[in-house]
Structures are given as C-alpha cells and as structure tokens.
Specification:
The protein has 683 residues and is mainly alpha-helical. The chain has a domain of 141 residues. Helix content is 70%, strand content 2%. The chain has 23 helices and 2 strands. A two-stranded antiparallel sheet has the order 1-2. A hairpin with a 6-residue loop joins strand 1 and strand 2. Helix 8 runs parallel beside helix 13 and helix 10 runs antiparallel to helix 11. It is globular and about 90 Å long.
C-alpha cells in the first residue's frame, strides 16, 4: 500500500481507491509524462515503419531491399527503446512514492537513452546500416556496399548509450530499494517468505529490484559484446568467437525485450488496483514467484540457440526448462491475480483501465506462443519463421504498447478527472483488437506454413498473407490514431486543471458573484525524501580481510610467468588484462570501504556512478590489439599498459564504494565479469 497522503475522491478511480492511493507529486507527474510522451513518439514512428515493411512484403509499395533492412534494423531497436522508456517512467512513477529515487540519475538515464536512439536513427537512415537490431557478427562487418564503417561504429555507440542509460536507472533502483528496505534479502521479501518477518516490501518494490538485477546482468553482457564489436570496426584483425558472441547478444537482446514487460508488471500492481478499489498485497506466493522470475529471466534466452549444434546440451535443456518455468510466475502471479482482483470488484471502466485489462490478454496469448516456440521439436519447424514475429508482436503490441498508452491515459485522466465517452472507448478498443490480432494471426498462420521472417521479398505465392496482414495493420493504426485523438482533449483539460483553478469572486460594484480562473500556487505535496546512506560494500573486519585476500590472489596476474604465458593468444592476453583489472577493482573496493578513506571521499554518488560504469567500458575499448601490440616491443611501455588495466579497476572499485553495500558489490562483480566475457568473445 502507498504510504503518502491519500488522494482526494476521483471521478475516474474506484471510490474505495482513495483509501490507499496517494496524490502524485509534481516531480512524479513530470517524470512520468516525460518518459511516456518521448517513448510513445518513438513507438508511433516505429509503427509507421512497420506498416511500410509489411506493405513492401505485400508488393503494394516498392522499397529496395537495402532500405527494407535499414528500416527493419531501426524498427526493432527503436520499438524496444521506445517501450523501454515508457515503462521505465511508469515504474518510476509508482515506485518514487515509497522509495526515494534520485531525479538526477533518472534524467541522466533519459538523456543517455534518447541520445543513443538518435545515434541509431542516423546510423540506419543516413549511414545505411542494416544488419538487424540483433547485430549478430560477422554480418555487420560485411556490408556488401550498403553501409560504411562510421555507421557501424555509430550504431554500436548508440546501443552502448541506450544500455548505459538503462544501467544508470537499474543501479539507482537497486541502491535505493535495498537501502530503503534493509538489504537485498529483505527487499526481495525472502525473510518474509521464510517466516522471519511479518511484512514484506510492496509488490512494485520487489518487481523493481528483480528487474534491476536482471537488467544489470543483461547490460553487462551487452556492453561486453558491443564494445568488442566496436573494437572490431577499428581493428579488422580482431576475431569474434561466433558462439560466445551469439550467447552474449541474445542474453542482452532477449532479456531487455522481456524486462520491458516486467517493468510494466511492477507498475500495474499499483495502477490496476486503483480502478478495482482493492489494494494488491504482497503474499508469500508473490515473493516466491518473483524469486523464480529472477532466475528464469536470466536463463531462458538460449532457446534462441537450439539450432547451434555446438551449443552445450545442458544449456539447451536448461533454457527449455527456464522457458516453461518463466510462464508460471507470469500466469499465476500477475495475469491470474490481476484478473481475480478485477473480478467482482465493480471495476471502474475508463479508457486507461480498459487498456490495462486488454493488455493482460495480450501478454497471455503472446506468452503461450513463445512457450510453444521454445519446445525443441516444434522450434525445429518454427525457428526463424513468421511464428517468432507473431508471438513477440502479440505481447509487444497488444500488451506493452497498449499498456504504454494506458499509462499515459491514466496520467491524463487523473489530472483531468474524467475519461472519454463509452462510444469512443468501444470504437478504439475494437479497432485495436481486430487490427492487432488480425495482424499477428496472419503471422502465426504464415509461421505454421514455414514462411521465413526478415525477408524483404517474400517466397512466391505467399504475398497474400502479407497483404492481409497489411490490411489488419492499417486497422490497428486507425485504432491508435483514434486513441491519440481522444487523449488530446484530455491533455488540454488536464493542463488547465493542473495549472489553473476556478475561484468564486464577488463584484464590488454590482454585488454579483462569478467564477474566475486563477493560477495555482506551487505544488504543496509532501517534500521529497532524501536518499539515506547506503553504507559501504565491505563493512565488517571479515569482509575487509576477504577483500585483502582477493587482492593477493589478483597479484598473480602480474607474475612474469603468467604474463609470458598469456602471449600465446589474444584471448589469453585479454584474460590476463581481466586479471589486472580484477586486482585494481578489489584494491579500490577495499580502500574505499576503509572508514578513514570512505569519510574523506564523502557522499559522491554521481562520481561513483560514472567511475563504476565508465572505467570498465574504457578499459575494454583500449583492449584492441591495434593499441597494445606496438607496445609489446617496449617492455617498459608494455608494463605501464598492464598497470593501466589495474588503474581502470581501481577507479571502478573506488566508484562502486559510493553506490552502497549491495549495489557496490554487484557493480564490481559485473565490471570484472564484463572483462572476462570480453576475453571469451575475442580471438
């Protein structure tokens, strides 16, 4: 339940919702609207490009294959980025009322993501990059005259910026939730699950923490491979291990596409109850379900690699189990429980609440399609067919995009204190459902027939499916257009009510009374909570001793015998660099945790964040053979280069100590892990 001041009675929310619904503060409304409007603008643009591709496949319009693959690349990356922005804003909106998230970090994350999106836009539309948003190597480096090296570099830089923005967001969420609720175990509700505590954090806090952890894991994998590919654009002699690279790419890509939905889930635990008039409570089943999701989100990705015969068998079996297991928390914890919350509640049907409810069905249907595709014998038939396009467009369009509009509608309805007409809602929802499921239905049918995906030119005799899909896509676009047109007057009225109020006045000359519109005063809502001191990663004598012991272990990377042996291959050489980085990181973590030095460093969360993210990224960028091979002829310069690897680690470790106990430890772990993954992928 929300702990801030309860809201005044509303004409759009359930009457009983006032007992557990807080009035949104100005900063929460502004952040929510900023992310929602920016993300939806990108989503709508990508939707138009999607229709253009479908009409091209239907031979209604003529678009060259080169331009088709440019748009295909931009559409995939842009749609994920747009929905990610909206759902980040939605979760921030509901979480900030109980957890003191930092506004500065949120705006920094927003700036990085928007800048990254612009880089991808320029790389594809101007530079011609068209290797797909999954950018599987070696395709980006064999452009067949379609794009240049600068567009490759700009595309990878854009991905790094988007990943960096989400990393900043996740680090802040993890730091503030674990500080607010007393450590990671308590924040995840595991003490409550074991019966050691009577209460647990609210559902949105648990969901946000799980998303933050898995988000950081996936961003670490993505950063490692993207930096490696960026280095390959500078030094063409660098080799890429195809299997390791594909694992890292899909760990990053599949996870971030799924985390968009889990971000949304954290928001609807707060938003749907406002229309049902029933608060959503944290239960032991809920805690157990999200504990499972913490594991399943990170392990289900490799069902994309069934066709790679060199992939370890245990990984394929594990991914199939995780794919099935991921369905249980989603179906039971979120979809079923939300449906039961609505059942018999006299649900308040508004535009936003209807879109929230419709989205539950889209998640269920798209999720079932995904689980079917993850069955190995069926995947053998459906792999890289339109079935894959069907299932992820079902949960992306008919769940995530619908919820994006629902979140914006919720913000506007609350501020305007009204909803749209019943007829308008009926037409809008009907067009979205008919157009959306008609579009994905043609893809499901085409997938069963074995029609491949990502083809600019469809196989002979199959363009009819694309034509039917195009017609449904236009109906879907019409539904979203009607939706936008209905939101415009809501936005105008919300602006008026938020900035002006009607005050009764008396005319001193005639004595008559009238109403005048006057500007509202400053927002007098509760003051923002100041983030508490999150502590240091190594706080006890035993932890400090362990840090010192790991520093001693890290010294082995500088032993002459180890350095000489690492010259056998680039991969071993990079692994030795990772050892140097490990030594520096542990030394920085140890020194920064010492009370005397920690007090001198003071509270510098921004500087710590920049160091913890930037230092390992820069370290991997200079691990390109073209940089260090000339130094190998000069032992002193070569030794300084190795020392620089440790200095990067030192900066990372010191920066991590400014991020708190839990977040600092995880930041160092992921930074070292990135360098190891980088070494594994390069050859």
């Amino acid at each position: 339940m929300e702990s801030a001041t309860t809201a005044a009675p509303s004409h759009v929310l359930h009457p009983r919702a006032a007992a557990f619904t807080a009035d949104a503060r100005s900063i929460e409304r502004r952040i929510g609207l900023l992310f929602a409007l920016s993300g939806l603008a990108l989503v709508l643009l990508m939707g138009v490009l999607g229709i253009v591709m479908r009409l091209t496949q239907a031979t209604v319009i003529s678009l060259s294959p080169g331009w088709f693959y440019r748009i295909l690349t931009l559409h995939g990356a842009g749609m994920i980025t747009g929905t990610l922005l909206v759902m980040m804003g939605a979760l921030w909106y509901v979480l900030h009322q109980t957890v003191p998230l930092r506004v500065g970090r949120t705006l920094a994350a927003y700036g990085l993501i928007v800048t990254g999106a612009l880089c991808v836009l320029i790389a594809t539309l101007v530079g011609g990059f068209g290797a797909g948003w999954t950018f599987l190597p070696p395709l980006p480096f064999y452009p067949a005259g379609q794009w240049s090296v600068w567009s490759e570099s700009l595309f990878f830089t854009g991905l790094l910026l988007v990943g960096g923005g989400f990393t900043v967001y996740c680090l802040d969420v993890l730091e503030q939730t674990t500080t607010r609720y007393g450590g990671l175990v308590r924040t995840l509700g595991w003490e409550f699950l074991r019966g050691r505590e009577e209460t647990a954090p609210p559902p949105q806090a648990i969901a946000a923490t799980v998303v933050a952890i898995d988000g950081l894991l996936s961003m670490a994998a993505g950063t490692a491979i993207v930096v490696g590919l960026l280095g390959r654009t500078y030094d063409h002699t660098v080799g890429i291990d195809a299997l390791v690279a594909k694992n890292l790419v899909y760990f990053f890509g599949h996870s971030i596409a799924n985390l968009v939905i889990y971000l949304a889930a954290g928001a609807i635990y707060v938003l749907i109850p406002r229309y049902a008039g029933r608060p959503y409570e944290t239960t032991k089943v809920f805690v157990a379900g999200w504990a499972g999701s913490l594991l399943f989100i990170a392990t289900a990705y490799s069902h994309h690699l069934y066709m790679d015969f060199v992939q370890p068998t245990w990984a394929e079996i594990g991914s199939e189990i995780a794919s099935y297991g991921a369905l249980i928390p989603v179906a039971v914890i979120t979809i079923y429980s939300m449906t039961m919350l609505v059942w018999g509640s006299r649900y308040r049907w508004t535009l936003a609440s209807l879109l929230f409810y419709v989205g539950l069905a889209g998640w269920a249907i798209g999720g079932v399609g995904a689980v079917i595709d993850s069955i190995i014998p069926i995947n053998f038939r459906l792999h890289n067919t339109d079935w894959v396009v069907a299932h992820f467009h079902t949960y992306l369009i008919l769940c995530v995009v619908v919820w994006c509009f629902a979140f914006l509608a919720h913000l506007l309805e609350r501020n305007a204190d009204r909803t749209v007409s019943a007829a308008g809602r009926a037409w809008t929802i009907s067009l979205i459902l008919v157009g959306g499921y008609g579009l994905t239905g043609t893809w499901f049918l085409a997938g069963v027939l074995g029609i491949p995906r990502r083809y600019a030119i469809q196989p002979p005799g199959t363009t009819g499916y694309s034509l039917a899909g195009s017609i449904f896509a236009l109906l879907l676009a019409l539904g979203f257009l009607f939706l936008c047109l209905q939101l415009v007057p809501l936005a105008r009225e919300a602006w008026e009510r938020r900035h002006y109020e009607l005050v009764e006045r008396r005319d001193t000359w005639t004595g008559s009374r009238y109403q005048a519109r006057v500007s509202r005063g400053p927002d007098e809502s509760a003051a923002l909570k100041k983030p508490a001191d999150a502590g240091v990663p190594l706080a006890t004598p035993a932890q400090l001793a362990l840090g010192a012991a790991l520093c001693v272990v890290g010294l082995a990377a500088f032993f002459p015998q180890v350095v000489d042996a690492s010259e056998a291959s680039i991969r071993y050489h990079h692994l030795d660099h990772a050892g140097h980085f490990f030594l520096g990181a542990m030394l920085g973590l140890l020194l920064g945790s010492l009370p005397a030095l920690s007090n001198r460093l003071g509270q510098r969360p921004t500087l710590g964040l920049v160091a913890a993210i930037g230092a390992p990224t820069l370290m991997m960028l200079v691990m390109v053979p073209r940089f260090y091979e000339p130094l190998e002829r000069h032992p002193f310069e070569h030794a300084l280069y190795h020392l620089a690897m440790a200095v990067f680690g030192l900066a990372t470790g010191l920066g991590a100590t400014r991020l708190g106990r839990v977040t600092g430890r995880l930041a160092v772990f992921l930074a070292v892990g990135m360098t190891v993954m980088f070494a594994a992928a390069m050859k």
